[in-house]
Amino acid sequence: MRWRDRYGLRRLRGPKIAKFDRAANDSDIEALIAFAKSRRGVEFYVEPETFATDTTAVAVADDGEWTRRRVGAPAVIRKVARDLALPVYDVQLTGYPPRMRAYNERRKREEG
């Protein structure tokens, strides 16, 4: 059985992969989809590729809960967001939503 490129990771990413990171795979995309389907008000924020990491996306729920996964290319998460009818933003243009920071602060207080 051949590995299928279900989400277009290979096609949309191109030949370039960050030096120290593993490539995005279907389980990364499926984790973002599962997060989005199990929470309200989810938005995606695309983070650019760096020397050390592949392109990533952060899914942020209405209450500020979030998760980050590799996506391979911005086009991949845009396709997923379109299929789920959810917004997607470029974090370099919009920044992270304030509710994400508030969620992190709440978690610190609860743990500490």
Present the secondary structure layout.
Layout: H1 9-13, H2 26-38, E1 43-47, E2 56-60, E3 66-70, H3 74-84, E4 88-90, H4 91-94, H5 98-111
Parallel strand pairs: 1-4
Antiparallel strand pairs: 1-2, 2-3
Summarize the structure.
This is Oxidoreductase. By secondary structure, the chain is α+β, with helices and mostly antiparallel strands.
Strand order of the largest sheet: 3-2-1-4
Biggest sheet character: 4 strands, mixed
Share of helical residues: 40-55%
Distance between the termini: 49 Å
Class from helix and strand fractions: alpha+beta
Gyration radius over CA: 15 Å
- Beta-strand portion reads 15-25%
Protein name: Oxidoreductase
Organism: Planomonospora parontospora subsp. parontospora
What can you see in these coordinates?
With 112 residues, the protein is of the alpha+beta class. It has one domain (25-111). Helices cover 42% and strands 16% of the residues. The chain is built from 5 helices and 4 strands; from the N terminus they run ααβββαβαα. It has helices at 9-13, 26-38, 74-84, 91-94, 98-111, and strands at residues 43-47, 56-60, 66-70, 88-90. It has a 4-stranded mixed sheet. The mean pLDDT is 88. This is Oxidoreductase. It comes from Planomonospora parontospora subsp. parontospora.
